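re: ur msg from earlier - yeah i can do the adenosine-5'-monophosphate-propyl ester complex, just paste it... oh wait u already did. ok heres what im feeding in:
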Amino acid sequence: MATEETTSNAQHTETSSSGEESISSVLSEKRKFPPSAEFSNNAHISSMEEYEKLYAAAEADPDAYWGGIAEQFHWFKKWDSVLEWNTPYAKWFNGGKTNICYNALDVHVNSWRKNKAAIIWEGEEGNQRVLTYGELHRQVSKFANVLKIAGIKPGDRVAIYMGMVPELVIAVLACARVGAVHNVIFAGFSAHAITERVNDSRAKMVICADGTRRRGGSINLKNIVDEAIVNTPSIRSVIVLKVTDEEIHMHNGMDHWWHDLMGLAADESEPAELDAEHPLFVLYTSGSTGKPKGILHTTAGYMVHAASSFKYVFDIKDEDIYFCTADVGWITGHTYMIYGPMLNGATILMYEGAPNYPQWDRFWDIINRHKVTIFYTAPTAIRAFIRAGNEWVTKHNLSSLRLLGTVGEPINPEAWMWYQKVVGQEKCPIVDTWWQTETGGIMVSPLPGATPTKPGTATRPLPGIMVDVVRKDGTPCEANEGGYLVIKKPWPSMLRTIYGDNERYEKTYWSEFHDMYFTGDGARKDEDGYIWIMGRVDDVVNVSGHRLGTSEVESALVSHEAVAEAAVVSRPDELKGNALVAFVTLKDEYVGDMTLREALRNHVAKEIGPIAKPDEIRWAKGLPKTRSGKIMRRLLRELATSNEIKGDVTTLEDFGVLENLRDQEND
Ligand code: PRX
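and the outut:
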């Protein structure tokens, strides 16, 4: 499907004569797709002129722009100031009091939307549930009462560990209603990962399910929680939702059934009147050191950007049925499955299970049966669908679709074209949305009724969002010059800090470029001002759209008794975007043990979760290091990718190490 105009989206890190790493890009993609007149005519923002006008106005007076959006919500008390900025700490809408759950539910229940579907849920086995805004409001209010009775107070942290069932949304919104800080932990994470996250956030409670259904079977989640909370002194109680028939142990005094508590709870609950900057949630994400970062988001600013970005990027209308395939365990699930849609009174389609269960057409079957109009997924899923074959898609009637979206990693132009032709039948605009856990909401994306798209770029920043691509010294790059993606001005849904670690917050995001937020991504801006993301420039890797810190995987590997040292790097992978390659030095007594490769992969799965399993483990007698002892990951990346090293090796301490690594490639 590629044309001669397209070369692969690749990022090269080169060492310049000054010894500094610079980034160069080799992508040249010339195709351009303007939205159809029909789409534009009905869109919230219907032309580039309108976008440019809005962008310029927001840039000239950000307070007026964001304040204007904030006016659309319910406030118990209006704010005193739109933004107080004390680099790098922001207070948005300070002095105001609101409640995001009230804005996501009560305002709709008090309108004609009371009986509109909020969630159309489909279980893996094909069972279905529909929760109207009225019913969701009732359930959330009841569960808010459960939390209050259990002693949860505003500001308390609550960990949530469950699969994709409506009760996950109910638990999240109930936390927001009472002012508890939710900390959702992806149900694929291990006991060790839960312990780490619960302890770091000092959570008081875990809400979990007995199990979660997966590919016709089920996974016992409660046993994993039991194992995790042996080492979490802050946990006072566990609420367990019954989803599967997993055999579990309920511990007296500690564990309570969801249905028992809900049976006793009243179904009305006053929402807490919370400060605009009241913490809303902590979500852990990988950074470039071994310890995951608790990204802290607060109430009002997050609400304002989640709602408005959802409205404009997905051009949401009341008739739409919106299907986001992300898990609530990731930021996309938080912002664009729960808060963004519900703040807009939208109908979401929530699917419990695997995309290829029972067959590769599950998503297309869902779209056809439920007449989904907007579909949002990850490039890694798109590539898997391409591999599975077009017939799985084309046998379904997808004519209800009007808009497609992608998120999580750069989409290669070939996958973009396939998505546009085979799924979108050349009539749906594609919004390639760039953002991060830290940004809380979409930063760079086409506006579907306005922006001409080009395969592979997230295009232009949203109004109110000031991004740029800069050199190492902070000066702006020329058009098409590779550099570092930064955000120049605070935005409402920005992270406020790393939970309990202001120093790490300042160092990670604000030390590289003075007064500008550093995203960790390399990018270039083309002659139209479109942003082309070239991938991470730190030790964070996107594997199948999930973000992993290579150092986390390294720490997991070295925690195994057989491992002396490990370095983990990525290499490009056709399906997953990136694959993890681990170079492992074994302790002498373990060298030659043939069972270790699999044992180490399983060990990583146990320490972090199956998503972090290295794709390849290579034995290394030693690792290439600089004289000061720093592992030269750049060389390992080259080896992992092409099996040869062309880059500069002058700082290498011991050349024999490289020879050994080359020799051992296939043993
Ligand atoms: O490298 C960028 C990539 O995903 C990173 C953020 O990962 P995470 O916090 O897990 O959030 C993912 C969902 C928002 C970014 O630093 N990324 C995300 N979206 C895109 C992307 N890379 C290219 N294009 C995108 N649309």
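cool cool. The mean pLDDT is 92. ping me if u need the other ligands too
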